[in-house]
Design brief:
The protein is α+β, with helices and mostly antiparallel strands. It is 45% helix and 11% strand. It has a two-stranded parallel sheet with strand order 1-2. Helix 2 crosses helix 3. The termini are far apart.
Length: 87
């Protein structure tokens, strides 16, 4: 049982991350389908988001084909460094 939980290589992590990103994008596509009510996703405290999270957000925005999806984000710019991914 323990072997199933171990990640053997970095490649497995990359594949898992890509699968997660794909699933999140598909989820947004499905819930913002034209036959459903509009969807608003509010993300707070984006100053704490890491580069991988910002990449997922960018992919969501790039893949959201529906005009029925709105992403709103907030951050405290006084708590972000100049090299933050969303700066």
């Amino acid at each position: 049982m323990g072997d199933m939980c171990n990640v053997d290589t970095e490649g497995d992590c990359v594949d898992a991350l890509k699968k997660l990103q794909y699933l999140i994008c598909r989820f947004v596509e499905i819930i913002s389908d034209s036959s459903s009510p509009p969807v608003v996703l509010f993300l707070d405290d984006l100053q704490w988001a890491d580069a991988a999270s910002i990449t997922v957000i960018a992919q969501i925005l790039n893949s959201a084909r529906s005009s029925r999806f709105l992403l709103v984000g907030s951050c405290r710019d006084n708590e972000m460094s100049d090299n933050h991914p969303i700066s």
